[in-house]
Structure to design on (279 residues):
């Protein structure tokens, strides 16, 4: 007799908060929630991206609910207000994806990138990167995780990166003819934030292990997003599978991690990197 294991992937009516929900991968996390018939709640400091994501999801799926809140996740009082609104409306909060981070696209795309040589890396950028990527994740886990531990059920996914496991190979970002001290490199704060978030996962997974709240890390890597051919070739040479990832290659894993399909998984680091960190 069929055992209906696929039913365990359901997120029916579950309220799942996604920080940085207006960004590139935030949209894909929201798709995972929509696929499972849950309710994605997007939190972002920039309204425009979030509205674009919401409209596109409602158009693609034709039905369902997408909640949006313009907020700065480094401000605890703003998060508490959102928690209260959601609890008033739904009475439960079932999941949190700590996805927001300052993610400078060194290979192109990000505007006004200053040279980020370690020796001169500005302390104000360091503080801001840690505030969004680590403090924001901690505050969201405090405010929304508290609801989940009181409910006795919930799930947190912390988004790290292959750069949470290995150092960036700065050679792929080098531009010919640019002096050493003007080369733009992946900043030290990115490595520290992405390594740190794995520590947060392990800490909380154990802290809430008996409370029904599971906490895991997802490490996406090397997303294709309109980079030039030269960069794609350089990075692909570092990846055993020989190619960058597509944004929709994370959706099924996120659905698995958010749902009861992964009911015995906590404290884990799930790495989707085409093999990059394995050789
Ligand atoms: N794109 C990649 O290649 C890649 C690879 C590995 C890991 N990641 C990780 O995935 C996550 C998402 O990356 P992305 O490429 O979608 O980035 P993105 O820049 O497209 O999205 C990040 C979003 O976070 C929002 N944000 C920034 N500060 C905020 C704040 N204080 N409060 C609320 N929202 C805030 C931004 O407005 C933006 O919409 C990040 O944690 C990143 O480190 C990305």
């Amino acid at each position: 007799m069929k055992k209906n294991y696929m039913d365990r992937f359901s997120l029916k009516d579950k309220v799942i908060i996604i920080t940085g929900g207006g960004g590139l991968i935030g949209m894909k996390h929201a798709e995972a929630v929509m696929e499972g018939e849950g309710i994605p709640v997007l939190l972002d400091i920039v309204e425009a991206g979030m509205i674009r994501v919401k409209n596109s999801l409602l158009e693609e799926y034709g039905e369902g609910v997408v909640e949006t809140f313009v907020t700065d996740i480094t401000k605890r009082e703003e998060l508490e207000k959102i928690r209260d609104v959601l609890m008033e409306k739904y009475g439960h909060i079932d999941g949190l994806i700590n996805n927001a981070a300052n993610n400078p696209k060194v290979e192109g795309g990000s505007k006004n990138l200053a040279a980020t040589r370690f020796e001169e890396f500005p302390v104000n950028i360091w503080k801001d990167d840690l505030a969004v990527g680590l403090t924001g994740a901690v505050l969201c886990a405090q405010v929304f995780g508290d609801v989940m531990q009181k409910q006795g059920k919930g799930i947190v996914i912390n988004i790290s990166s292959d750069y949470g496991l290995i150092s960036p190979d700065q050679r792929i970002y080098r531009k010919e003819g640019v002096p050493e001290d003007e080369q733009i490199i992946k900043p030290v704060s990115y490595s520290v934030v992405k390594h740190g978030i794995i520590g947060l996962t392990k800490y909380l997974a154990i802290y809430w292990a008996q409370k029904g709240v599971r906490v895991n890390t997802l490490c996406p890597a090397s997303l294709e997003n309109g980079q030039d051919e030269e960069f794609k070739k350089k990075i692909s040479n570092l990846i055993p599978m020989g190619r960058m990832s597509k944004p929709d290659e994370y959706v099924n894993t996120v659905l698995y991690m958010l749902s009861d399909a992964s009911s015995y998984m906590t404290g884990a680091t799930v790495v989707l990197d085409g093999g990059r960190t394995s050789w």
Remarks:
- The chain has a mean pLDDT of 95.
